[in-house]
Amino acid sequence: MELSIELKNVTKQFNLESGDLLAVDDVTFSVGAKEFVSLVGPSGCGKSTVLRMVAGLIEPTRGEVKVLGKAPDYCRKQRFFGWVAQDPVLLPWRNVLANVCLPLEVAGRLDKASTEKAQSLLRLVGLEGFERALPKQLSGGMKQRVAIARALVLEPSILLFDEPFGALDEITRQRMNLELLRIWSETSAAALLVTHSIAEAIFLSDRVVVMSPRPGRVKADIKIDLPRPRTTDMLRSQEFFNYTNSLTEALFHGERGA
Hints:
Elements: E1 3-16, E2 19-32, E3 36-40, H1 47-54, E4 62-67, H2 72-77, E5 81-85, H3 96-106, H4 112-124, H5 140-152, E6 158-162, H6 170-185, E7 190-195, H7 198-204, E8 207-211, E9 218-223, H8 238-252
Parallel strand pairs: 3-7, 3-8, 5-6, 6-7
Antiparallel strand pairs: 1-2, 1-4, 8-9
């Protein structure tokens, strides 16, 4: 399989004033081309640290991270990544279209054709007609749609999601999961998602990588063999229930009270 992301024996240690902190230890997994993989694990287990190493924002202490066969820092500078975080981080004085166009401006690629591309992305995420709206006029789910459109505007090869729907209510979150799959299916990008939600990980992913409490290690790498496109009916299926049990067992096996 062609690999978009590859981590080999990756360890990250932070040197703090209070002492050394081993955040991630000997992590190995990969993400194939056009594959959707989720990282799940308890708070503080290093999921976001892994995501930042993939993005080239921090370097591993030991081990190797490759993105499209190259160093993550190179891919970041080439703008191969699209990033969506829990906070959409929209500039409040810029309207929706201007927020989506911001990466184009930074990259020096803003022109008529790219602006039309941004407008087409707003149609894709269901925000046609809101181009001139300010962030304060949008709901939480709408703001995240803007953030997703902004992440896609440079046509990235890798999409990185750090709890993008964690602040949303459950109904809106499920709707956004459906929207995310629909939007992702129209790209050729590989995706790596950090989430605390077992159900979300199963519903979105081709594979789920389960991490241990800190220091984060890979406890399991579970293939999700549900057909695409995914539907909400699958949430009530025996197969989905079985995957939920498998991930729950992987997460809590060996812990006190589990």
